[in-house]
Design goal:
143 residues; mainly alpha; 2 domains; two-stranded antiparallel ribbon
């Protein structure tokens, strides 16, 4: 069978023939006819995450677990809000069957919530986070 493997950063994926694995009685072997790559996979191949792996533990923030928890919580809030807006759309239409058009208010509502964060992010300097990835601040960002 074929496998696309990352053998080195900043190099193309290598397509290799590998042995079909032996499976146990409680396992299933799934044949994949086609697949795609998400953006984070492409970033991994390009070595984007390699920089973060080089951060020594003393420089890692204790806030990292808190930030991860806040990110998960915000994603849950977005999913819950989308579900609530779908439910309200169905209640407003007095129906119980979803159609493709019923998702429009949910997408707009979640999108508006996301846009509400824009003013906060626009206040960040272009050099925000530069020290985390080892870049020195430019003269313009040091102000």
């Amino acid at each position: 069978m074929k496998a696309a493997r990352i053998l080195a950063y900043h190099k193309p994926l290598v397509l290799e023939d590998i042995a079909v694995p032996d499976i146990q009685a409680d396992e299933v072997l799934v044949k994949v006819a086609a697949c795609g790559m998400c953006r984070s996979d492409v970033l991994l191949v390009d070595g984007f995450f390699q920089t973060y792996a080089d951060i020594p533990p003393p420089l890692m923030s204790r806030a990292t677990p808190f930030a991860s928890m806040a990110q998960q919580l915000s994603m849950s809030f977005g999913v819950g809000t989308g579900a609530l807006l779908l439910h309200l759309t169905l209640a407003f239409q007095r129906t119980s069957e979803l159609t493709a058009n019923d998702f429009t208010p949910a997408f707009i509502g979640v999108g508006l919530i996301s846009l509400a964060a824009l003013p906060i992010f626009l206040q960040l300097s272009p050099e925000a986070g530069a020290s985390v990835i080892g870049r020195r601040r430019s003269a313009a960002g040091a102000e």
